[in-house]
Write a structure and sequence with these properties.
The complex is a heterodimer of chains A (447) and B (277). By secondary structure, chain A is of the alpha/beta class. Chain A contains 13 helices and 18 strands. In chain A, the strands form four sheets. In chain A, strands 2-15-14-18-16-17 form a six-stranded mixed β-sheet, sandwiched between helices. The radius of gyration of chain A is 22 Å and the shape is globular. Chain B has twelve helices and eight strands. In chain B, the strands form four sheets. Chain B has a two-stranded antiparallel sheet. In chain B, helix 2 crosses helix 3 and helix 2 runs antiparallel to helix 4. Classes of the chains: A alpha/beta (447), B alpha+beta (277).
Chain lengths: 447, 277
């Protein structure tokens, strides 16, 4: 590595002790074998769920449209394999509540032609054609928020966007899906970024990678110059991969409270989203599979798998060799911001970057007595909030006080709870306040 | 001499100013209404918010202004209402007294997940849809018990139970419950269906042994006393012929979901091993 390169970061944040990445970061991406059944959840994007266009008993080909986007903030959904739509029913969703899903029974052939024409000459075609492809292919942000990507590609009038940042920080402990993606398919990532740059008419493109992934950086730099992309080195710090922190680290700009990254002239895309866009444009295939890290101390062979959307967690764990002991928790995503699941039947969605099994001895009950005002959470908060104050206010039912202290700016990264010596449930308190404030806001609207 | 001058001057000044004050008091007299204070003294003073006002003082002000009637206070007894009506010389109004009932028997039937977060129902309900397998049942973390101004709710084992003799029907518990499992029913009713899940029987049965199966046996045997809300049986509280303990035996519910309040309390205590939690 060139030592003269500037390693960038932001103020605040934490460094998780023992990030668990070495469990899976050396295993190359494996393609999972075909399953009998896939459960494709309809609501895989932020906003409105798409409307199914198939019905029970229909025969579907791979890549065939299963559900049509409903409105602007919604995304198309395609079949991960060929087979029969055996059922459309409610199943346990990734957020713990039942949600409608399409069950596809595979015919074992996994065949289907790419439904769109590959656009090889993407450098010269009409931008609208590329935008249309993003909509058709049902691409959503694959970092976790699953926001429909095409919405980010149409800046409103009056907002000028001059910088595109690719998020390859992958600051979440344990997750290595983006790491392996950047290392093994660097051209896809960089080309996808260049296509995004072409759509948004941006020349200033960065890909931010934490410097614990030097092999990935080397792979990216091999292609970076060819497509006019710059690789930004980031310090290993959590939450470096958060949108606002990433913008601050690379450009020095601050996204003000209550505004969007677009207001600071930036658009941030996850590296996996870029790779999916590259597939959609140059190969003409929609988003039906993604790289998922299946990991945890209790997994026999932790690794990274190319899983079809709709693969149940149980099968994913089976691909990784099963478990050595009964896990304490099943988490979709990383240990810091991931969501605990109710059942092993919950399927992989477009935004599932990891399936993490936490051992029983780590999933224990925390005993918490009270805030000792040590201020470690204040030091750790990347949004410069005062989590101890928020938490005490919320516990006393003073949601108005929490709102006045910008509880809505909290992104629930968990840095404060991680460093709290009393193990206070700071993030859960914040979530409670946010839910309460949203409820009040809706009630006021109805009035 | 100097002393007398000072006395006369000060005396005259005092008289003049006193006269001015006297005139102004008469001119700018504000008609005071002590009816609000009178009403406040007669109200229960729990500040529970059951009437929809900010508290008893606010309700008393509204009473004096004629915006509400004494009967709008759900907590007050009939005697208290009559006393207020008499004192303010207004109509007492007739609003039936209510009471809360927790329509769930999760302590006997439902499975629970491993939850190690904040011991508060509203916070717990946000984590993967709540720590109980049934998404409609009581969470048993006691948000309702903490908010009750009358101490009428007890958490027995892992389920909240309302003590009807203490409940005044202010509705605070029903408002804070994230699962809407607390129902406000007429105060004289003491037999209820203890299930809140609108799911199909097969789904419910896989989650809880005590859930209403929707078999409609009770509806057939006790016509007019039990009605159906979708797949869930509910006691018809408006029925002219109210349900009696004899009816419970006659109906013999396969999951024993229809019970008197006393029986419910005893069952909960037995399930909790007789200990208070």
């Amino acid at each position: 590595m060139k030592s003269s390169r500037n390693v960038m970061t932001f103020a605040g944040g934490i460094h998780p002790h023992g990030d668990g990445k070495s469990l899976s970061c050396y295993t190359p991406v494996q393609t999972a074998p075909l399953l009998d059944k896939y459960l494709v959840i309809l609501a895989q994007n932020a906003g409105k769920a798409p409307v199914p266009v198939v019905k029970k008993g229909d025969t579907v080909k791979k890549y065939q449209l299963l559900a049509q986007a409903d409105g602007v903030i919604s995304a198309n959904l395609h079949s991960p394999t060929s087979g029969v739509v055996s059922d459309i029913r409610e199943i346990q969703g990734t957020m713990g509540v039942p949600t409608p899903a399409i069950e596809i029974t595979s015919d074992g052939l996994d065949e289907g032609a790419s439904p769109f024409d590959p656009i090889t000459d993407w450098k010269n075609v009409d931008v609208e054609q590329l935008k249309q492809r993003v909509v058709e292919a049902g691409i959503v942000g694959m970092g976790g928020a699953s926001f429909p990507t095409h919405v980010k590609l149409s800046p409103p009038e009056g907002k000028t966007v001059d910088t595109l940042i690719l998020n390859g920080a992958e600051c979440e402990p344990y997750l290595t899906a983006d790491h392996r993606l950047m290392q093994e398919f660097p051209e896809k990532v960089i080309r996808g970024a260049a296509i995004f740059g072409r759509i948004l008419n941006i020349k200033n493109i960065f890909v931010g990678v934490e410097i614990n992934k030097l092999d990935a950086i080397a792979a990216l730099e091999h292609y970076a110059e060819e497509y006019g992309v710059k690789v930004a080195y980031l310090r290993v710090r959590y939450p470096q991969g958060s949108e606002k922190q990433l913008i601050n680290a690379i450009t020095g700009r601050t996204v003000k409270s209550g505004t969007l990254p677009m207001d600071a002239g930036c658009v941030v895309q996850n590296v996996a989203t870029c790779a999916a866009l590259d597939d959609a444009v140059t190969l003409g295939i929609p988003l039906v599979e993604r790289i998922v890290t299946v990991t945890g101390e209790v997994v026999v062979h932790p690794g990274n798998f190319k899983l079809k959307i709709g693969t149940p967690a149980l099968e994913a764990v089976r691909f990784a060799g099963g478990i050595t002991e009964e896990p304490g928790k099943l988490v979709f995503g990383g240990p810091m911001m991931g969501f605990a699941q109710r059942s092993f039947q919950v399927p992989v969605c477009k935004n599932t970057s990891g399936i993490l099994l936490i051992p029983q001895k780590q999933a224990y009950n925390f005993e918490s007595s009270g805030c000792i005002h040590c201020g470690r959470c204040v030091q750790g908060c990347p949004m410069h909030l005062v989590p101890c104050l928020l938490s005490t206010a919320i516990e006393a039912g003073r949601f108005d006080l929490a709102e006045a202290n910008h509880v809505m700016d909290c992104m629930e990264c968990g840095s404060c709870a991680y460093v709290c010596p009393d193990h206070r449930p700071l993030v859960q308190n914040v979530r409670r306040a946010k839910a309460e404030l949203r409820k009040q806001m809706n009630a006021n609207k109805e009035k | 001499m100097t002393l007398y001058t000072a006395l006369i001057v000060m005396g005259l000044l005092g008289l003049t100013l006193g006269a001015i004050i006297g005139v102004f008091v008469k001119l700018f007299k504000v008609e005071q209404d002590n009816r609000a204070e009178l009403a406040l003294e007669l109200l229960p003073g729990a500040n529970c918010g059951g009437c929809g006002k900010a508290g008893c003082a606010d309700f008393a002000r509204a009473l004096a202004a004629g915006e509400v009637m004494p009967g709008n206070c759900p907590v007050s007894s009939l005697e208290q209402r009559a006393a207020i009506a008499l004192a303010l010389e207004i109509d007492a109004g007739s609003v039936a007294r209510k009471q809360a009932v927790v329509c769930c028997r999760a302590d006997i039937g439902a499975e629970e997940m491993n939850y190690n977060g904040i011991q508060d129902c509203n916070a717990a309900n946000l984590v993967a849809g709540g720590p109980t397998t049934c998404r409609y049942g009581c969470l048993g973390l006691g948000s309702c018990a903490r908010v009750c101004p009358f101490g009428a709710i007890e958490i027995i084992g892992r389920v909240a139970v309302v003590h009807p003799e203490l409940c005044t029907g202010c509705g605070q518990c029903a408002r804070i419950c994230p699962r809407n499992v607390i129902k406000m029913v007429p105060a004289n009713a003491n037999i209820h269906v203890y299930c809140n899940s609108p799911e199909k029987a097969a789904v419910k049965r896989s989650l809880c042994k005590a859930g209403c199966l929707g078999c409609r046996k009770c509806e057939k045997l006790l016509p007019g006393k039990i009605k159906f809300d979708g797949l869930l049986a509910v006691v018809d509280y408006d029925a002219t012929d109210a349900i009696t303990p004899a009816d419970i035996e006659k109906c013999n519910c396969p999951v024993h979901g229809i019970m008197t309040e006393k029986e419910r309390c005893a069952v909960a205590r037995e399930a909790a091993g007789g200990k208070r939690v």
